[in-house]
Amino acid sequence: MSDKRVVVVGGGLAGLMTTIRLCEEGIPVDLISIVPVKRSHSVCAQGGINAALDLHGKGDSPYEHYDDTVYGADFLVNQLPVKRMCEKAPEIIYMFDRMGVMFNRTMEGNLDVRAFGGAKFKRTVFAGATTGQQLLYALDEQVRRFTAEGMVKQWIGYDFQRLIVDENGVVHGCIAMNMNTMKPEVFPAAAVVVATGGPGYIFGKSTNSFINTGSVACMCYKQGAKYANGEFIQIHPTAIPGSDKNRLMSESARGEGGRVFTIKDGKRWYFLEEMYPAYGNLVPRDIATRAIFDVCVNQKLGIDGKNMVYLDLSFMDSDYLDRKLGGILEIYEKFVGDDPRKVPMKVFPSVHYSMGGLWVDDDTDMTNLPGLFAAGEVNYQYHGANRLGANSLLSCVYDGFVVGAAMPDYLKSYQKPENFDKLADKELNEVEKLFEKIYAMDGSENAKKLHDELGNMMTERMTVVRHNDKLEELLGMLDELKDRWNHIGIADKSRVLNQEAIFVKDLENMITLAKVMTKGALLRNESRGAHYKPEFPNRDDENFLKHTIATYTPDGPEISYEPVKIADIPPRPRNYAVDKEETKKMAQNKDKGGK
Amino acid sequence: MADTVRLRIKRQLSPDSSPFWEEFEVPMTHGMNVIACLVEIQKNPVTKDGKKTTPVAWECSCLEEVCGACTMIINGRVRQACSALVKDLEQPIVLEPMTKFPVVRDLVVDRQKMFDNLMKVKAWVPIDGTHNMGPGPKIPEPERAIHYELSKCMTCGCCLEVCPQFNEKSDFMGAQIISQVRLFNFHPSGASLKEDRLHVLMGKGGISECGNAQNCVEVCPKEIPLTHSIGEVGRQVTLQALKDWFMK
Description:
heterodimer, A: 595 residues, alpha+beta, Flavocytochrome C3, Chain A, domain 1, Methane Monooxygenase Hydroxylase, Chain G, domain 1, B: 248 residues, Ubiquitin-like (UB roll), 2 domains, 7 strands, elongated
């Protein structure tokens, strides 16, 4: 066993896969999580995980998967990491298969696959409609095995507070708080891996869990880590609007044949099939979302004039549906009260995923702070301007392999600084100071109410359609909200699991990160993937084929740009009304000066 | 009055302090669940009688009934707060923490014991490593479908809350663990540890302590056939005991 320990923050798919890979390399891990890792947000992933196994013998390949992903991402992605991920994908599926994941199977007992958005091959492996849950449990079991062997120590109910960083920006561990006692503790580490997922809770209601605040990513950003492409927020086309959150209705519903429609002139209008004959209901999410939004908001053709359209499975065999989609049918039944086997579901787009995140190096997943790595949704790699469905589970797991491969090299040259105790004390002190300030807050504002306002202002201005004047206005509103944060009054002064105090801390981080997203959106005067501005309706490769990079300053984010690294696939027009081969021809003709 | 929801909540400020009750009234919204009620209390932590208090602590994460975090006792029945819709509940809605686990604060309990027990029975497939070794064993789809149901257990603890044998005085591990043993014993490579698992279940806290009350299967939110699992693993344990006796 190595005498150098690594801290992994977050126990979803990315955190657990990282933990397993580090253990296999003989590196002991301190695994920090605010919830028992089995309850992490990865459980919410439903539809499946992509890998070009070509199980139907139709000529699918990792290269096709790679091309679909880059094209789906509207080319705002460094291509080599995507290529490597797609090449690794089949091995990853086999690994889960060996771990005992109950993937759906064919009658011969082989893995079953289904269709997903933005791809013409069936390459999504699945376990009913609870694939994320099943993959997470498999990794949880393996981590428990390493925990039993003494390689992993799990710190459950611990909330990450700050990195321990030296004067050169090198990370030497972190401070995390035992939430039950509200005491911050020092975790010395040769490296820290954050795998804390997305920031959906910034938008109030989203498909994300309540724990997805983006707070840890924001803390790393405040301490010097760069945050990239923050403006790229995926809005999933089909969710059930709810009073507490929006619940995902998996893309697999359409993958299995589900059809989206609304009523126009008294008849069913299957608008996605009409608008995008080549991909139909399986266009990528940004495309489907804009179409649904346009039908409801601009054309006022939502169900009964409301912001909803139908997603129909009711024409399909109900035994088949139970076997392939049971999990999501139950969710709809439990939360809406109707049986989707009998009546079409009512859905509307919802904030779902962040393509942007902490900037990481293409080869190692290390951030610009030496010793700080980022894995999973919290980093900006792989998905560019729009993520394809069933690629997120893949990228989370793949990141674990990337970090696992890079860590031994990093640790070889790592040395704990002589002034470690001083560095740690300084950060510990910062945390204590912040919480003393929070406990003493006696203003008139309520943190949860401010969060409602944050969610509303972000959802209104920073989701499907973006206008520069509204984004300018939003930046001002966020500053105002930050001011009001200082006037929060706290009802709970307890030092036992004080959820209010922790939330007040998280809220400030959410507002800070919201500003990063908004400023990135304001400055990106084009439309690309999930980022759509009617004033600038086209993709502008000349000016914006580049990553937005936000650097923290006390006066707000400083934005710079970094070129996108193209390896094999030259940018071409993105048009899902036709097959992608057609778009390649269109690009060639254009190069030749033709039409 | 139709526009408000009344709640009666059992509170406890720390693991060692005494519990007490508080009543709240919060505005009703369309499609509201118990979680949304608790969020309303966070926005205005004042009791029904106008007394300022602290917000109620509870655990939640996914809100889709797949993570198991928000398990509590609602109107006397153990279940997840996210899928407990206000329109289906009698008021005042009575919320209590689970009784079989130590209270941390208010509705939050410490369920670590369940995870520890998963470790005791080695609820995992002992793979050689994560490197590429090709596909796993083929599994017939009908068998897969049965065991997929078992693998949906979210370690919420409902089955333990209602089990008369699972309590402070006994070490009984409960239906959740037995069902996971069935799952991993079924898997072709998971079965390598079958004997180890059965020996754990033959010991203290094992399957013989099941009192056959069958409450577990009634409350499982994922409708896992827990009593079938107990029956099946019971047979495996019996066979193992015979095998052990002959091998002596």
